[in-house]
Amino acid sequence: MTLVDFLFMLIAKFIDMAPGKHTELKDKASLWYTNMKTDPKYAKYAEYMDHWMFQVFLCFAFLFSVKSIARWMVADNNPGATDDDDSDDEEEFEEWQRQKKSKAQKFSLS
């Protein structure tokens, strides 16, 4: 099994697990995943993916990735939001607050 096969199988499983009504994509993913489960080449890996511990791992991995992406987005919009690099961002943050206040004052004056 190649890495590409594994990733496609993982994506199909994730789409198949997703809650909600059946769509064309979900039906195709479910059919493709079922076909892979019956193929002896992929049956062992499909068995691992069907195990509840793997599904819990997928949920935590998804939540962690969403949290990380959200954190990076906040850090891009607000320089003082995170202290990951241990640098002194207080001056940068104060400048950002001053700019925000001046924009708010300009908006309220007009």
What does this structure look like?
The chain has 110 residues and is mostly helical. It has a domain of 75 residues. It is built from five helices and no strands. Helix 2 crosses helix 3. The longest helix is centred in the middle third of the chain and has 26 residues. The N and C termini lie far apart (64 Å). 5% of the residues are buried. The mean pLDDT is 75. Keywords: Membrane, Transmembrane, Transmembrane helix.
Write the layout of secondary structure elements.
Blueprint: H1 3-17, H2 24-38, H3 43-50, H4 52-77, H5 90-109
Transmembrane segments: 52-70
Region (Disordered): 78-110
Keywords: Membrane, Transmembrane, Transmembrane helix
Key traits:
110 residues, mainly alpha, transmembrane helix, transmembrane, single chain, 0% strand, membrane, 5 helices
| Content-based structural category | mainly alpha
**Shape assignment:** elongated
- How many individual β-strands? 0
Helix content: over 70%
Are there runs of 5+ residues with pLDDT below 50, and where? none
Calculate the terminal CA-CA distance, rounded to whole Å: 64 Å
Region (Disordered): 78-110
Transmembrane segments: 52-70
Biased composition (Acidic residues): 82-94
Keywords: Membrane, Transmembrane, Transmembrane helix
